[in-house]
Design goal:
Elements: H1 7-17, E1 26-28, H2 30-36, E2 39-44, H3 55-63, H4 67-72, E3 74-76, H5 81-93, E4 97-101, H6 107-115, E5 119-122, H7 127-141, E6 144-145, H8 152-168, E7 174-178, H9 183-195, E8 200-206, H10 211-218, H11 245-252, E9 255-259, H12 261-275, H13 281-292, E10 301-306, H14 313-322, H15 327-330
Parallel strand pairs: 2-10, 3-4, 3-6, 4-5, 7-8, 7-10, 8-9
Antiparallel strand pairs: 1-2
Helix pairs in contact: 1-3, 1-8, 3-5, 3-8, 8-9, 9-11, 12-13, 12-14
The protein binds pyridoxal-5'-phosphate.
Residues 52, 54, 81, 149, 178-185, 233-234, 280, 282-283, 307-308 line the site of pyridoxal-5'-phosphate.
């Protein structure tokens, strides 16, 4: 690691991204507090303008570039919440954003990216080929390559979420967050553990393809076999050449859990029914982990990062089916 990130980087990020990304509310969940005999708080990053916390890191990455680089523009390969966030931040800041995607990206995602203002470069038949094209454009056109998680500015931006939680409720005992590439847990963990080392940071992934958890178990970044999941925003690897998030997750995350699809489905339905919120699977994994692993939270103060709400009707219907609900009959 060339340089260590500190809480100072997160404060700088916070000042930069103010006005682009929201400082989101931390609301008490009456129903979860009652159910687990605890104080449960929901950090509502689903309310960010692009529907996910990723805007924090994307905005900080663009704002951290020098003016000449901003004028030339940036390129990424993320088709999910990060690509959308980068496109939005680029449009707001007048920075040209190219997103390289493979021919296999589904039409609804392509449309969402196009509407967010990105220039799409369709290349290759896999995510890896699209990524190679992104790196080629970086070299050929002098664009800055902005990766979705393994980048110090992105991590510092995501860290502002953790800073806000402890500013609002300094005596939180545990924080749950979805874990994929680890940008969120690395940044949030840095903020939370620096402010209060006693606060536990817990990362949660789906059962199949939990790249960071498998890498931590192996002691080095490893490749995993992916499978479709309700928590589709948690898919993808951590990169075999991971430079930042692997080491930071190792250092700042206290525990990791995996959750089944059925538990994710039930947790999503909990959000709909009790919190009156429609959230994506990746945002519901913390609640799923408490249920599946029967974690004893009694008397404790617990925050859950509700990380996003970008959900297709098909995925929501699948969640209802898995949870044993018949939405069209009950709604
Ligand atoms: C990206 C994402 C995550 C996981 O973040 P990482 O930084 O990749 O670990 C969790 N929830 C949502 C909604 C996401 O889009």
């Amino acid at each position: 690691m060339s340089k260590q990130l500190t809480l100072h980087d997160i404060y700088l990020a916070r000042r930069r991204i103010a006005g682009l990304a929201l400082r989101t509310p931390l609301l008490r969940s009456e129903s979860l507090s009652r159910r687990w005999n605890c104080e449960a708080w929901l950090k509502l990053d689903n309310l960010q303008p692009t529907g996910a916390f990723k805007l924090r890191g994307a905005a900080n990455a663009l704002l951290g570039l020098d003016p000449a680089q901003r004028a030339r523009g940036v390129v990424t390969m993320s088709t999910g919440n990060f690509g959308r966030a980068l496109a939005y931040a680029g449009q707001r800041l007048g920075v040209p954003v190219k997103v390289c995607i493979s021919r296999l990206v589904p039409a609804n995602k392509v449309e969402a990216l196009r509407q967010s203002g990105a220039e799409l470069v369709i290349h290759g038949a896999s995510q890896d080929e699209a990524d190679l094209e992104a790196r080629r454009l970086r070299d050929e056109q002098g664009l800055a390559y902005v990766p979705p998680f393994d980048d110090p500015l992105v991590i510092a931006g995501q860290g502002t979420c953790g800073l806000e939680i402890l500013e609002e409720q300094p005596d939180i005992d545990l924080v749950f967050a979805g874990l994929s590439g680890g940008g969120l847990v690395a940044g949030l963990g840095l903020a939370v553990k620096t402010i209060n080392p006693a606060t536990e940071v817990i990362g949660v992934s789906m059962n199949q393809g939990a790249a960071m958890l498998e890498s931590l178990a192996a002691g080095r970044p490893v490749q995993v076999v992916e499978a479709p999941s309700l928590a589709d925003s948690l898919g993808g690897g951590i990169g075999l050449d991971n430079a930042w998030t692997f080491a930071m997750t190792q250092r700042y995350m206290d525990r990791g859990y995996r959750v089944d699809e059925v538990q994710i489905a039930r947790a999503m339905l909990h959000f709909l029914r009790e919190e009156k919120m429609l959230v994506e699977g990746a945002a519901a994994v913390g609640v799923a982990a408490v249920e599946q692993h029967r974690l004893d939270l009694s008397g404790r103060r617990v925050a859950f990062v509700v990380s996003g709400q970008n959900l297709s009707t098909e995925t929501f219907a699948e969640a209802c089916r898995l949870a044993g609900e018949r939405p069209y009959e009950n709604l």
